[in-house]
Design a protein that fits this description.
InterPro entries: Bifunctiontional_GlmU_arc-type, GlmU-like, GMPPB_C, NTP_transferase_dom, Nucleotide-diphossugar_trans, Trimer_LpxA-like_sf. With 428 residues, the chain is an alpha/beta fold. It folds into two domains: 2-220, Alpha-Beta Complex (Spore Coat Polysaccharide Biosynthesis Protein SpsA, Chain A), CATH 3.90.550; 234-410, 3 Solenoid (UDP N-Acetylglucosamine Acyltransferase, domain 1). An eight-stranded parallel sheet has the order 14-17-20-23-26-29-34-37. It is globular, with a radius of gyration of 24 Å.
Amino acid sequence: MKALILAAGRGERLQPITDTRPKPLIPILCKPLIEWIIRTIENTRLVDEVIIVVSYLKEKIINHINSLNVDLKIKFVDQGSELGTGDAVIKGLSNIKDIDEDVLIIYSDIFLSNWSVLRDIAVIDDNVIVGYYSPNPSNYGVLLIENGLLKSIVEKPEKPLSNLINTGIYKLRIRDILENKDVETSSRGEIEFTDIINNIVKHSRIRVLDISNRTKWIDIGLPWNIIDANKIALESLCENSIKSIVEENVTIKPPVYIGEGSIIRSGSYIEGPVYIDRGVEIGPNARIRPYSVICSGSRIGFSVEVKESIIMENVHISHLSYVGDSIVCENTNFGAGTITANLRFDEKTVSVNIKGRRVDSGRRKLGAIIGGYVKTGIHVSIMPGVKIGSYSWISPGAVVKHDIPSKSFVKTEVNYFIDTLHNEIFDE
């Protein structure tokens, strides 16, 4: 059996996070999404070759995968122009000789709480599409089924006839895909894999496997989904696993994972579930609140509070700062007293600008979404739902109320007016 991982998309709705890293390298517990998939495929022992379709920032994906010590044959296919998921699948399968083989197809922007279900999918002796019951089916492809078999997929219907959605996981005969690949391009000018699936069901059966009772599933399509996915992963922590130096007068409430080479300095308070990767320095007197993830090489300084946030690699958060319900990308540096606000005055849910449109996050608390290599000066305040693009600098004392494009310099100036006081004031 072959496995095909679709990893070519730009992830434009995830900007500025995807300015500096492709979507498959977004970390869940500091491990990239695609690595979770690769490790699971390796553990099934059912796949003889993994094909990864890449395009956007492909070198970063290739370099990361090549750095993994996995017992798998891995091949990369460059999609070139990103013409849709169907185009990616066709290009990925184009050089396979035995088209009567099966292929396990997985989108690289999904996360499962229980990845072992992939093995159960792989051993089914039939075409399979994997479904999941969602409270918001209009945001996804909806599966219409009859007697356990797929009738069709309806993409993002206004009035869905079912809550069972397409998860982006399939096991199909390669021949069935290639013999039904001729479809019209969508309104976006792309070849959609779901259209190929709808062609297949006209000639062959596809079983629907509902995994709703066996795992949590999430699509990483919007920035706050990264917080949600990490929260799901953190729920799997059961007890403390501490491989670091912990100084005196530190409180650690389980479950907390702390990696090798990290230092937790005196007076710090960590309340799990929390994941702290290797080579991290916390404190002194820092507070790390539940559902926080802090990745390798980061530094959380004196009297800094981090709450339900994702701190990526090599981030430095200086003393007296607060980071709540936020995402801070790699190599960002916060000046002392930088604050991310996470709650509106009216306590309504926070909306975020996504590709020029305001999208309700559904979260009452949501802080900032900060790209890689950002620098803030001292006493910077960032309002709820604001995005700061990668490589931007924010000058001291700024109050950031609106999104900042990448490679911007936000400069605040205070003009002092000095009046000449009457001499009699000083003569008194």
